[in-house]
Amino acid sequence: MNRWKASATHLALSVVVIGGIAISAFLLWYPYGVHRVAGLDRILLVMLGIDLTAGPLLTLIVYKRGKPSLRFDITVITLCQIAFLGYGLHTLWQGRPVFLVGTPETFTLVFANEIDADDLAQASRPEWRRLSWTGPQLVGTRMPDDPVARREVIEAFMAGGAGIERSPAYYRPYADIAPQLLQVATSTPQAVAPRDGKPVDRNDSSIAGQVPVVSRRGEGLMQLDALGMPLRTIGTSSP
What we know:
It comes from Luteimonas chenhongjianii. This protein folds into 2 domains: 3-95, no CATH class; 97-235, no CATH class. 43% of the residues lie in helices and 16% in strands. The chain has helices spanning 3-29, 35-38, 40-62, 70-94, 117-120, 147-158, 178-184; strands spanning 97-102, 107-111, 137-140, 194-195, 198-199, 209-215, 218-224, 230-235. It has a 6-stranded mixed beta sheet. It has a two-stranded antiparallel sheet with strand order 4-5. The radius of gyration is 23 Å and the shape is elongated. It starts with a helix and ends with a strand.
């Protein structure tokens, strides 16, 4: 085997491993098409760029049939690639979406590294006191009715706090918020995004309307069904 074949073999194995990880993360952590506002493409591109370049390229450089230190060199390259992959997986894990929070006007996608452990412990339900491993939990939230509590939330946010969307203490069942979202949902799509290779049908009868969906990495529109449940995320139109 020459160096080109060795590098190609290494590249193929890397594609299989990293591709499997990417597909698994996509299917498990990004329902409703929220990858469109989660910056997933940028994270995966970094992982692919480092791992698919470092391993196969180094193999191409050092591989020489019959070289006495070849086994040692390949072992070091493999360990380096595993370390790069481990760092990428840690970054992907820390930035996974854990809550899809509906407010009376919009959705906010919240990531694991945006939730403080002390805030998480104050959630009213046990399932909201942990960071999901299997995709974002659908919850609702809104400003407190009590003026004093409302002022405290605003003051905490102005002082650099997480905001009500990232404060599990204020989470409530999504069903409490869904009717309000339906009231403000726009009925005419403002953007068209690919869906299985085809444009989203503007006249799809299952779509009752759409509201903004945002995260700290992007924004889009969430389409709702007649009960106010999220269907899918589409991209926003260019200004």
